[in-house]
Automatic annotation (TrEMBL):
CDD domains: FAM20C_C. Its main location: Golgi. Residues 354-570 form the FAM20 C-terminal domain. Keywords: ATP-binding, Disulfide bond, Glycoprotein, Golgi apparatus, Kinase, Manganese, Metal-binding, Nucleotide-binding, Serine/threonine-protein kinase, Transferase. ATP binds at Q270, K286, E307, A390, A391, F392, L393, E464, D479. The active site is at D459. This is Extracellular serine/threonine protein kinase FAM20C. It comes from Enhydra lutris kenyoni (northern sea otter). Mn(2+) binds at E307, D479. Residues 130-145 have a biased composition (Basic and acidic residues). It holds the Pfam family Fam20C. Its cofactor is Mn(2+).
Amino acid sequence: MKMILVRRFRVLILMVFLVACALHIVLDLLPKLERRAVRPSGEPGCSCAQPAVEAAAPAWAKARGRPGEPPAASSAAGDAGWPNKHTLRILQDFSSDPSSNLTSHSLEKLPAAAEPAEGALQGQNPGGPRPRDPAHRPLLRDPGLRRSAPPPGPSGDSSLLARLFEHPLYQVPVPPLTEDDVLFNVNSDIRFNPKAAAENPDWPREGTENEDFLPTGEAAVDSYPNWLKFHIGINRYELYSRHNPAIEALLRDLGAQKITSVAMKSGGTQLKLIMTFQNYGQALFKPMKQTREQETPPDFFYFSDYERHNAEIAAFHLDRILDFRRVPPVAGRMVNMTKEIRDVTRDKKLWRTFFISPANNICFYGECSYYCSTEHALCGKPDQIEGSLAAFLPDLSLAKRKTWRNPWRRSYHKRKKAEWEVDPDYCEEVKQTPPYDSSHRVLDIMDMTIFDFLMGNMDRHHYETFEKFGNETFIIHLDNGRGFGKYSHDELSILVPLQQCCRVRKSTYLRLQLLAKEEYRLSLLMAESLRKDRVAPVLYRPHLEALDRRLRIVLRAIGDCVEKDGPHSVLEDDLDAEHRVPPGR
């Protein structure tokens, strides 16, 4: 009797194991079956069901046969090499490393806040008209709005931005670059050698093979994809140059390139997706969570606020207008949640969170620390969702970055205060600590402080630099999603580092004064710059008006420092005699 029970128990265990294996296999096959399923015509339901996805590879991605190699062998080599994208994938990263591009972490998980109702529009954004009925917004803007010419400037010029960038303050060159001052040396680095790339079927190229080589035998940079041109343009002094045409081309790529795969980014408090394009470029996608008009609720702590996709877009444009050029290119985009996320992802955890809402819209929520649940799902209309795409920086294995704790980091606690909030002489302690004691890092922190105050961003806990350049380099302004949350409130505590240290670059101060003039008003420049984006208008009009108001507050703070300590003590003269700005300009 005992033996019979033992045998039955073993059979039961075996059956459970087999059932579990069968379920696992079925779950693995579900995404493929879902893609192949075709709805009968006229069937009611969600209008976003997908036909079979075409698997046509772009022309540049097809493997090239070596000279003398038969076509069959070349085709086989291409098939074998197609899944291996390491050669290019390794060239970019935002990054997924937990120590890089950190996001805010609260010590306590706050209760989920209900999504505030969308308010009625109270004004018209200079960046473009808004729909009259706040309850109904078209999924895509009228293409005519994107092509409309900017309003003429005070002197009749068609572009206020063009006149700004022609100003002497925006013509100051960077020092001559040596091999140690560039992140990648294209001609000597095997990773950018076209002769080696020509033998690699994964290298993206367009046109004929002869276009990859110059008569000198050097790399034909024009044959590189725009994301790679952006990477090889990084140097000790700037993330990209003022007149680099690859930046505008990269912004267009972010908004138009075909998305070939999607995965969730690990870490972080809110959902972010890593999107890969057909030219193997990658970008970080932040979906829309709030409408343009919604302000951060007054009872929200800064570390539990939503991350706004339009803040990432606006931060890039603001950073460029301030001439910092320390924010990676960011563009807005309307994404089809079915074709461009669900059907191309291999992330099972992400795929399983898709569902159809009672309103017959496609929704998903993914996995993250906060706001990743059915109650906080991201829903399309019916399957279109707006978001921002930030270009990846080079992969950490190629260009290591060092993560630094911001000296003026907040406590990220509901009751505790940080040391700088209670010690008025805190800056003196900072200036005695490396790297703030012997480099221009304190001046970089002041630039970042001004940048954050203009946006209203309180979430600057860490920053990064490229390790190759040591301490004599710029700060990368990453993760700006918690900016532009309140237009009716100016958070003066963000300016404390400037008020405590009373140090700022003279070039920064002069540019701020220029942007405060009526003929170069910051809000008008931002409106013109943002108008080019695919999801314009990016900012609600009161946010643009808040920029002008906050700029005056920054200038008053610097003026108070100059009155107290004198201009020579406050303003670091970084303009040589050759590039002095003429009086009155």
